[in-house]
Amino acid sequence: MTIRILGFLFLLFFLHEDSSAHFLPKRSIDLIAAHSLIVDSRLPREIAPNSYSVDLHPFPEEGHFKGHVQINITWHEPTDKITLHVHEDLKISHSEIKIIQFAPDDEKLKLLISHKPTEIKILRSEVVPKKPFYIIYLEKELKIGAQCSVDISFSGKLYNDTSEGLFRSNYINTITGEKKWFIASQLRPNLARKVFPCFDEPAYKATFKVSVVRSKTMHALANMPLKKSEELPNDSKWVRDYFIESPPMSTFAFGILVSDFVSIHINNTGDENDLETNISIWARPDFLSAVENSSEKIYTSVKALEKFWDFKFPLPKLDCVALPNFQGTRPADNWGLIFFKESELSGKRSWKITHELVYQWLGALATPFWWSDAHINNALARYVTSYVTLKISDGKETFHNWPMTMLYSIYYEFSKRYPHGKVMAIKQDSSSTKTELVFRMLNYTIGEDTFIRGLQRFIFDRQFRTFFSDDVWSCITQQARIDRVLEESITANEIAGSWIAKDRLPVLNVIRSEDGTSAAITQRVYLRERPHDVPDQEKLLWWIPIVLIRQDHLNFSNSIPVMWMRRQREVTISDLPPSNKFIIVNPEEIGPFPVNYDTNNWKLLAEYLQSDEKNKIPVNTRAKLLHDAWNLAYAGDLNFSTALDMTRFLKSEREYLAWDAVFTMIDHIGRHIDGSNVHKKFLMYVRMLLTPLYEELGDEAQEGENEGKTNLRMSSKVFLCQAGYKPCIEEAQMAFNKWIESENPDEGNPVANQYICPVFKWGSIEEWEFGLQRVVNFPLSRKQSERTYLLKTLAGCPVDSWKIEKILNITILEQNGNFTDNDIYLIFSMLTGSSSGYTTLFNYLSKNWNALKKAFENKPQLWNSLITSSTSVFKTQEGLDKVTKLYKERQQDFGTAEFVITKALKNIKEEAKWSNDNLPVIENWLDNYLRLQNNGTRTEESKFL
C-alpha cells in the first residue's frame, strides 16, 4: 500500500509538461543529452575561415538539393592542404573545385606589390574513410598570412525522416486540401557539414552571404533580411533570393526556411526606446491565428532581454516560425530564425520562448569555444531565462518551482554513494543545474546589480567571439572589484570552481552555544544514501557564503554574507540573538546546500511556523526548512521526531511551493517504510494531512485561480488517490468504464493516464483483467509507448498478490508469446516500487525456484534481474532474515547471480539498521500525532478504502 509517485509523475508530465523545471528545455549546443557525449573529429588549426558565400537550391518534391560554397580562408600555420568537415551524405563535385589565392603569404610582398589573384593547382582531393573530413591537397605549401577562396559545388539529400540538417516536410492545407512542402534546417550541434563543406566547429566564426533558390509560389527566410531577388535566367519557375551578409557566426547558427507560410509582424509602439529589430511570426496559413497570442510574449521577452544584457538584439530581424511536424526535441534556434513546434509557439507560457531568445545572445552572439565549455552556456542560459521570466510575469509564472525542483533533484543525485551511475548524460545535466544554482548564489551574495553588470560586461566583451568558462567568472569578478563587493583575495572563479569541480554538495551543521549568542559552523559532504563510506570525503571543502537571518530581525531582503567559509572545515560566528530566538542560515536556498541545527533551534523554528506570524518567513524558506529537516533525518543526521515536527505548520499552509517538499517526503519515506507495521499509521497521517486541504480546494478549478492552487489540488488528489481515497477511486473507475464499454477497446485508450493506476490498484478483478487483455491484444499499429505504460501500471500498481502472480505466470512460466524479454525486465523493475510487489516476487521465486531457474537457464541477464528485483529492496530485519534464509538454502544454486545476492544482503543490512534506528521514533511520533487528531479520525477514515 505504498504511496507512490508513479501516478504523480505521469500526471504532471502529460498535463503540465511545460510547467515544471523537471521538463526544462535541453539545448543541443549545451553539453547534455544526445550531444553531451559528442566526440567530434577536430580540424587541424592551420587555417580558418573568414567568410562564406553559400548558395542552396532545394528541390522539395524530389527530396534533394544542390549548392555551391565559396569560403574565404586565412593560413595561420604553414600547410599544403585544406581540411573541411563534410558529411558522408554530401556529394562533392571534385572536378569543379577551384582555389584562388588573393593575398600573398610573404609579408614583404604584401607591402611591395599588388598581388594578383592566382589559381592554386590541386593535386588531389579525398573523403577520409569513416571520418567527416574532406581534404584538398595543394601543389605547394602556403605560409602564414596567405588568403585563398575555395569554391566547391555539391549536392545532398533533403532528410525526410528526421528534422536534422537540411530537411523537408509537408502539411495538408485544411482550407484547400492541398499537400504543401517546406524546407528547413537544424544544424546544431555539428550538422552544417550535412548541408555544405565547412569548418563545423563553434570556434570558427565567420560572416555568411546566403542565397537560396525557390519557386515563385514560395518564399525564403534566412538568418538575415532579404537584400534582393532575381529570376533565374531562362527559367521562369525559379527565383534566387539574396540575403544581407551576416555578422560573424558559427556554422550551427546558420538557418534557412523555404515555404508558403504567412506571417504577422509584431507592431512596435513607436517609442524612441522601442525595439530596433523587425520581428515576425510565421505559420502555415490555417494555423496563423493560433500563434497570434505569442506576439506579445516574444515582444516582451526581447525587450526584457535587451534590458538584462544592456545590448540590443544582435540582428536587424527575428523570425519565429511554428513548424508543422517538427521532430526536434527542442526548438531550432538558428540566429535570427527560430523554429518551434506548433504547440510550443501557440502555448500559454513564455518560459520556452524566452529560453530560445536567450540563446540569440548567449550561444549565437557569444559562443562557447568547444563543447567542454557548453555546460556554462546551458547553465547561464537557464538562469537568465528563469530570472527574466519571473520578472516579466511579475512572479505569476512560477509553477516550474524554480529553483526548488532543481535543488531537490541535485540534492538526491549528489548525495548518492555513486552519483549518476554510469549515465554520463545525467552527470552533465545535473552538473549544469548545479552551475545554474551557483550563478543564482552569486547573484544574491555579491548583489543583483553587480552580478548583472558582470554578465553585461561578459556579453559586451565576447560579442561575435567565442568564450571559455573562466571568461564568465572573470567578468563577474572584475565588476565585483569595481563595485567593491568582493575582497581582493576572493574571486568568482575560485568560488565557482569549488562547486563545479565536485560531484558532491556540502551540508552545514550549525550548533549554537548554550546562551545562543555564538555558533560553531562546520561543513562536510552531504550524504543521504547509506552507507556514508565515500572515499576522501574529508578532503572536500567548498567556498560557502554564510547568509543569516535572526528572529529578532527578520530581514529577508539582505542576502550579503556575514562571512565566507573559504574552504574551511569550521568557523565560529558571534553576535547572535539569545537562545530563545531562532536563526536561519542560507535562507531562500541562496546556496545549494542543506543546513542542520541543534535541537533547540529546530524546536524554535517549528513553533514559529505554527504561529500566526508564519508568513513573515517567505514560502521558499519555509519549503527549505521542511525539506532540509526530513532529508537530514532520512540521511541519519537528525532525529525523525524533530523532522516530523516541522510538518505541523502545514495545517494552515496553502502555498504549493511549501507543499511540494511534502509530496516528495511522502513518497520517499512512504516507500522506505512500506511493508513495516508503521506504514499503516503513516498512511493515516498522510490522509489527515491531505484530506482537509483537498476538500477545501474543491474538485474543480475556480475561474482565475493561480497555478499554484491548481497544482496543489492536482498533487493532493494524486496522493490521496494512491492512498485509497474513495471519491478519487470512483472517479477513476467511471472514466475507466468508458473504455470497457467501447465497441473496439483495442483501437485506442480513451482513459487519461491519471486514472489507470488507481483502477489497477484499488479496482475490481474485472478491471485489472480487462487491462491485461488490452496488453495481450495490443495492435502493432498503435504507439508502443502506450502499451509500455499499460504494462508498467498493470505490474507496478496492484497491491493484490494474486494479480502480480498472474502476470508472472503468464509472462514467465506459461511463456505467452505476446510478452518479450524486455517486458519481463520491465515487470521485474516495476515490482521493486512497493513492498507488495517485491515481497510477492520474492515469494514467487522461493515457491517456483526450479521452474524459474530452468526458464532462465539460457538468459543469465534475466535471471540476475529477477534475483536483484526480488531480494535487494527489503529494508527491515524481517526482510533481511527472509533473504538470508533463501541464500543459505540455495547458496550453491545462484549461478551468475551470486554477486547480486551477496550485494543485496550487504545493502539490506544497512537499510535494516536504518529501520531499527528510525522506525520506533517515527511510530512514536505518529502515535502521538494520531492521538491528538483522534476526534476526526473516524469520519475521515470512512472516506478511504
From TrEMBL:
<dbReference type="GO" id="GO:0098552">
    <property type="term" value="C:side of membrane"/>
</dbReference>
<feature type="active site" description="Proton acceptor">
    <location>
        <position position="356"/>
    </location>
</feature>
<dbReference type="InterPro" id="IPR034016">
    <property type="entry name" value="M1_APN-typ"/>
</dbReference>
<dbReference type="GO" id="GO:0005886">
    <property type="term" value="C:plasma membrane"/>
</dbReference>
<keyword id="KW-0645">Protease</keyword>
<dbReference type="Pfam" id="PF11838">
    <property type="entry name" value="ERAP1_C"/>
</dbReference>
<keyword id="KW-0862">Zinc</keyword>
<feature type="binding site">
    <location>
        <position position="355"/>
    </location>
    <ligand>
        <name>Zn(2+)</name>
    </ligand>
</feature>
<dbReference type="GO" id="GO:0005615">
    <property type="term" value="C:extracellular space"/>
</dbReference>
<feature type="domain" description="ERAP1-like C-terminal">
    <location>
        <begin position="582"/>
        <end position="909"/>
    </location>
</feature>
<keyword id="KW-0336">GPI-anchor</keyword>
<dbReference type="InterPro" id="IPR024571">
    <property type="entry name" value="ERAP1-like_C_dom"/>
</dbReference>
<feature type="domain" description="Aminopeptidase N-like N-terminal">
    <location>
        <begin position="49"/>
        <end position="252"/>
    </location>
</feature>
<dbReference type="InterPro" id="IPR027268">
    <property type="entry name" value="Peptidase_M4/M1_CTD_sf"/>
</dbReference>
<dbReference type="InterPro" id="IPR050344">
    <property type="entry name" value="Peptidase_M1_aminopeptidases"/>
</dbReference>
<keyword id="KW-0472">Membrane</keyword>
<keyword id="KW-0482">Metalloprotease</keyword>
<dbReference type="GO" id="GO:0005737">
    <property type="term" value="C:cytoplasm"/>
</dbReference>
<dbReference type="GO" id="GO:0006508">
    <property type="term" value="P:proteolysis"/>
</dbReference>
<protein>
    <recommendedName>
        <fullName>Aminopeptidase</fullName>
        <ecNumber>3.4.11.-</ecNumber>
    </recommendedName>
</protein>
<dbReference type="GO" id="GO:0004177">
    <property type="term" value="F:aminopeptidase activity"/>
</dbReference>
<dbReference type="GO" id="GO:0008237">
    <property type="term" value="F:metallopeptidase activity"/>
</dbReference>
<dbReference type="Pfam" id="PF17900">
    <property type="entry name" value="Peptidase_M1_N"/>
</dbReference>
<feature type="domain" description="Peptidase M1 membrane alanine aminopeptidase">
    <location>
        <begin position="301"/>
        <end position="480"/>
    </location>
</feature>
<keyword id="KW-0732">Signal</keyword>
<dbReference type="InterPro" id="IPR045357">
    <property type="entry name" value="Aminopeptidase_N-like_N"/>
</dbReference>
<dbReference type="GO" id="GO:0008270">
    <property type="term" value="F:zinc ion binding"/>
</dbReference>
<feature type="signal peptide">
    <location>
        <begin position="1"/>
        <end position="21"/>
    </location>
</feature>
<keyword id="KW-0449">Lipoprotein</keyword>
<keyword id="KW-0479">Metal-binding</keyword>
<dbReference type="InterPro" id="IPR014782">
    <property type="entry name" value="Peptidase_M1_dom"/>
</dbReference>
<dbReference type="InterPro" id="IPR001930">
    <property type="entry name" value="Peptidase_M1"/>
</dbReference>
<keyword id="KW-0378">Hydrolase</keyword>
<keyword id="KW-0031">Aminopeptidase</keyword>
<keyword id="KW-0325">Glycoprotein</keyword>
<dbReference type="Pfam" id="PF01433">
    <property type="entry name" value="Peptidase_M1"/>
</dbReference>
<comment type="similarity">
    <text>Belongs to the peptidase M1 family.</text>
</comment>
<dbReference type="InterPro" id="IPR042097">
    <property type="entry name" value="Aminopeptidase_N-like_N_sf"/>
</dbReference>
